[in-house]
Amino acid sequence: MASKKIKLPYGIPGHNLTEIEREVPVDEPPAWPVNDELKVVGKRVRRTDARDKVTGVAKYTADIQLPGMLYGKMLRSPYPHARINSIDVSGAESYPGVLAVHVFKRLVGMAESQESADSRGDYPEIRFSGQPIAGVAAINNDVAEEAIKLIEVDYQVLPFVVDIEEAMKPESPNVYATNVDQEETGGGGGSDSGLKTQGNIRGPSTMSFYGGPRGDVEKGFGESDVIVEGTYRTQVHTHSCMETHGVVIDWKPQGVTIYTSTQATRGVRDEFCALFDMPKSRVRVICEFMGGGFGSKHSLGNYGAMAAHLSKKSGRPVSLMLDRKEEHIMGGNRPNSIQLLKIGAKRDGKIVSLKQRSHGTAGVGLGAGVGRIAQVMYESPNFMTEQFDVFTHTAPGAAWRAPGNVQGALALESAMDELAEELNIDPVKLRDINDKSEIRKVERMKGAEIIGWKNRKAAGSDAGPVKKGMGMAQSHWPRFVDVNSTVEVRAFRDGSIEVRSGVQDIGTGTKTVLAQVVAEELGLQPENISVRIGDTLFPDGAASGGSIATGAITPPARNAAYSLKLKLFDQVAAALEAESSELMVADGEIRSTKNPEKKIAFRDALKRMRTEQLTTSASRSDDYGGFRMAPWLAYGTLGSVQYAQVTVDTETGFVKVDKIVAVHSCGRPLNISQVESQINGGVIQGMAYALYEDRVMDNETGHQVNKGLDNYKVPFAFEIPEIQPVIVEDYAGRTSTDAYGIGEPANIATAVAIANAVYNAIGVRIKELPITPSRVLEALKNA
Amino acid sequence: MNRFSWFDATSIKEAFEQVTATVSEHIQPKGPKDAAVFKTGGVDLLDLVKEGLANPSRIVNIRNIPGLDEKSFDKKSGLRLGANVTLAEMAEDPVIRENYLALHLAVNHAATPQLRNMSTLGGNLAQRTRCWYFRSLDHECFRKGTGTCFAQDGENEFHAIMRNEDCASVHASSVATALMAFNATVEITNSKGEQKTVTMEEFFIHPSDDSRYECILKSDELITAVIVPPVSSGTKSAYIKQGARESYDWAIADVAVVAEMSGSTCKKVEIVLGAAAPIPFKSMEAIGQLKGKTINDTTAGNAARAAMEKATPLTKNGYKVDVFNAIIKRAILQLV
Question: Between chains, do B138 and A78 touch, taking CB under 8 Å as contact?
Answer without folding.
Answer: yes
